[in-house]
Specification:
By secondary structure, this protein is α+β, with helices and mostly antiparallel strands. It has a single domain, classed as NADH Oxidase (3-Layer(aba) Sandwich). The protein is built from 8 helices and 4 strands, in the order H-H-E-H-H-H-E-H-E-H-H-E. The protein has a 4-stranded antiparallel beta sheet, sandwiched between helices. Helix 2 crosses helix 6. The radius of gyration is 18 Å and the shape is globular. The relative contact order is 0.24.
């Protein structure tokens, strides 16, 4: 098993997985580790839906049907990141996007190929395990911060066991489809999704390397 530092440093968003199954005991172990994430006053705001086999295929089918046939009904009803992108965030976003498309041999203006690539989100990038995360919609922003630490724990615990992940905001665009599929009762709503499995090392998209800012660009020491 990888050390915590090794797991964090080698964690990345994998977008092509093999069909090698992940044992349920391993999934449960990862979630048991992840739930030790800190949360304000121990609220633990996370709920996890794990999809495997036919259940996974049914969810993917429902969302892909909406993606291909009625995208206008689900377009941008949530602010995922920013309304008006500005640098340095815009530059970082563009770079990782075009680096990824370059590996996939998708040129600027090839919108249909881009759309097909985006659709792979809703197949969990062929990973054998998909997860959908839900939260009560009246939770405040600190609870969403807590949720992020829980998700990171899943990614790191998975990596320590030789697995890879991809956290996916894309699923939230089709939250109404998923909420109906799961028969979720208010105040529960879909937060995001995550793919879990073994990396396909032959897939060019998995050669993507993201550039991280040097520590001096984001850290300010006071005293000491």
């Amino acid at each position: 098993m990888l050390s915590a530092d090794e797991a964090i440093k080698t964690r990345r968003s994998v977008r092509a997985f093999t069909q090698q199954p992940v044992e349920r005991a391993t999934i449960e172990e990862i979630l048991d580790v992840a739930q030790r994430a800190p949360s304000g006053t121990n609220t633990q705001p996370w709920q996890v839906h794990v999809f495997i086999g036919e259940a996974r295929d049914a969810l993917c089918g429902a969302v892909l049907d909406a993606f291909w046939n009625e995208p206008e009904k689900h377009a941008h009803d949530r602010l995922h990141y920013m309304d008006d992108w500005r640098d340095p965030y815009l530059a970082r976003r563009r770079k990782v996007g075009w680096d990824m498309y370059g590996l996939m041999k998708i040129e600027r203006g090839e919108k249909e190929k881009m759309r097909e690539a985006h659709a792979r989100n809703f197949k969990f990038f062929d990973a054998p395990v998909g997860m959908i995360f839900t939260i009560d919609n009246d939770m405040g922003w600190m609870s969403w911060l807590d949720y992020g630490m829980f998700l990171q724990n899943i990614c790191v615990a998975a990596r320590a066991r030789g697995l890879h992940t991809c956290a996916q905001a894309a699923w939230a665009t089709y939250h109404t489809v998923i909420e109906n599929h799961l028969n979720l009762e208010p105040p529960q709503l879909v937060h995001c999704g995550l793919s879990l499995g073994y990396e396909d090392p032959s897939a060019p998209v998995n050669e993507l390397e993201t550039v991280r800012e040097p520590r001096g660009n984001f850290v300010t020491f006071h005293g000491g």
